[in-house]
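Sync notes, pocket subgroup
Present: LS, DG
LS reminded everyone that the earlier model was apo-only. Rerun requested with 2-acetamido-2-deoxy-beta-D-glucopyranose included. Inputs:
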Amino acid sequence: MSLFYSLLTLSFYSLFFSLLPHPSAAVPFIGATYSPSTSATPSHVAGAVSSLGLDSVRLKSPDPAAVRAFLYSNASVLLTLPNSLVPSLAANRSAAFSWLSSFVVPFFPRAKISAISVGDDLLSSSPDLSPFLLPAIRNLHLSLSDLGLRQIQVSTTFSFLSTLSSSFFPPSSAQFLEPALSNVISPLLQFLGDTNSSLLVNVYPYNVYRLRTEIPIGFALFQEQRFNFRDDLATGVRYRNLFDMMVDAVVCAIAATGNDNIPVIVAETGWPGASGDPTEADANPLYAEMYLRGLVRHLRSGIGTPLRKEGVAGAYIYELFDKEEAAGKQGRTGKQNRSWGILYPNMTSKYDIDFSGSVGCLGGRDFLVVKLVWLVVIFVLASLRF
Ligand SMILES: *[C@@H]1O[C@H](CO)[C@@H](O)[C@H](O)[C@H]1NC(C)=O
Ligand SMILES: *[C@@H]1O[C@H](CO)[C@@H](O)[C@H](O)[C@H]1NC(C)=O
Ligand SMILES: *[C@@H]1O[C@H](CO)[C@@H](O)[C@H](O)[C@H]1NC(C)=O
Ligand SMILES: *[C@@H]1O[C@H](CO)[C@@H](O)[C@H](O)[C@H]1NC(C)=O
Ligand SMILES: *[C@@H]1O[C@H](CO)[C@@H](O)[C@H](O)[C@H]1NC(C)=O
């Protein structure tokens, strides 16, 4: 009897509070990454981005034609400056001017270039170049200021697993690893705070799920499955999905450096729909669709993470098209052969997901009516019982 009563009260409260308006101050943007390939011309890509309802595109290795394709598009553009150019930009302001005059000046502001990532996961893929990273970022920022283009943010991308200590559960214990912390990340966070720019970090629940066998698949796929380590006792919050746990680990690692309130943009996230490695059974189209649908619903809800109510500033889904090499032969082991693309080469969507989030929104009228009816039913049941 008391259990019955508790359940009723619980349902009553959860329904009642779900009827209150969501604290949706700024809903994160959703974009996708694109690496120029031969199967799709840049103008087709710009069309696909807007028809998918994406707000932004991240060009992983831009060529001017790809930037040009986004002239007059509503989608904002995040450019990536290749790792190989980082030393010359660090040494020489005119190299920064010359890069900007090819990739930015001819297009901005007709193409909504929002930010430039200096390098792509440089700390893990080219660690020898890390001493050049901050000087290159500063030179690019100064050059943009000289050109009067202060609206464009300058930052760089990191990978979650290679920059955070392995003890990121619970999130409150997360820290950036040395020596990258002292040499690069601390001064970078200072720079980002001074220039109102965002930290860009790749967040792949898929990879953490594969490393930590105790994580149930539903927790990684936004199904709110129970998980023994989902409570963070230090902060007193409970996690409902792995994505939020990883984002809050980044938020805590930033806070541990004494830099609060640096916006976080997820530079890459996704779930592979296929893998060349037969042991990767979780790389399948069903899970990929569940992950992406859960991600879009979560971001569009504007609810944020337990520790940061505004959540991430935005997220880029990796990636629009499968890598061309995936079908090729040379140099790629089966293990790396994963298909992350959300579009087929013929530009049709692999998954049934509305990235604009305009349908299935919890604020819908029908949903409201259903909830109200349930409230009445629960109320009547409760009064009958007592
Ligand atoms: C951009 O958005 C405006 C207003 O929502 C719309 O009228 C216009 O067609 C869009 N342009 C493109 C290229 O999608
Ligand atoms: C600086 O960069 C410019 C343009 O990229 C190049 O012409 C020049 O030789 C460079 N100067 C030095 C000192 O590296
Ligand atoms: C940062 O943003 C705040 C609020 O948007 C603004 O007042 C401030 O001038 C900006 N600072 C810089 C350096 O752009
Ligand atoms: C990679 O995977 C794709 C499909 O997932 C397959 O068509 C291709 O043959 C695979 N390539 C290699 C080298 O395993
Ligand atoms: C596009 O390609 C996919 C996979 O090859 C196929 O299933 C689909 O029917 C194609 N759609 C069109 C419109 O050609």
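DG: DSSP finds 14 helices and 13 strands in the chain.
LS: Residues 64 and 103 are 6 Å apart (CA to CA).
Action: DG to write up.
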